[in-house]
Amino acid sequence: KSPIITLLETMSFKTTSVSCPKDAEEYFEDCERKTDLSTPSFRGDELAVRCSNRAWFLRIIGFTVKTKFVNQGSEVKGKTLCTVLSSKNDEPVDLKTDLQFSLLYVRPSGRIQPIDAKIRPKVRSKGYKASFRSSLVTTGQLDGCLACFVSVRGMSEVSTFRDHRIQRGCTLEEEKVKKKEKNAKQNEHNTCCLRSTSNDLAKTES
Q1: Which of 23, 82, 106, 176 is spaced 20 to 30 Å from 205 by Cα?
Q2: What is the reported pTM?
Q3: In which band, very low, low, confident or very high, does the pLDDT at 143 lie, cut at 50, 70 and 90?
Q4: 98, exposed or middle or buried, with CB in 10 Å at 0-12, 13-18, 19+?
Q5: What angle do CA 170, 176, 177 make, to 5 degrees?
């Protein structure tokens, strides 16, 4: 293996912002360099130099929900579309490899319950489609709200690397979601998105 490759594998990379005055002649002497922890670094970014107007952007701009009750009202069946805008250095972020998505059920108490859903990243729709069937009902009515949660894969603990959106018309307090969303467990075995399991639910409720 090349000594350079070995060195790259052992180094820790961070995005660095560089600012140079117009009359700068020497990079290391005249330019100011500052490590930028507000922008994630993905594989392949090592030693890359890029100029852009905006280093990082992630925001959920839409969340549509369609549900209906089945099995005599004991289960709810639904489809959702979570529309996401995300870019790094003005280039679109890959929804399949760089971001991860989860569909959540938020109870009035603020407790978060991941929903086991079939999730498909949609490039043309710029978001994630999810379909599910669950028994999250109380006397034939949803007593909570659905929410979508998107984050940079493996970096959901950083506030600027994640976003969430509660379905329109929900009366739950958003602060409860912000406090609880970190409890949504990630399934790293899924290559394109987060899916919950019964074990995830048990850990979330504990």
Answers
A1: 82
A2: 0.62
A3: confident
A4: middle
A5: 70
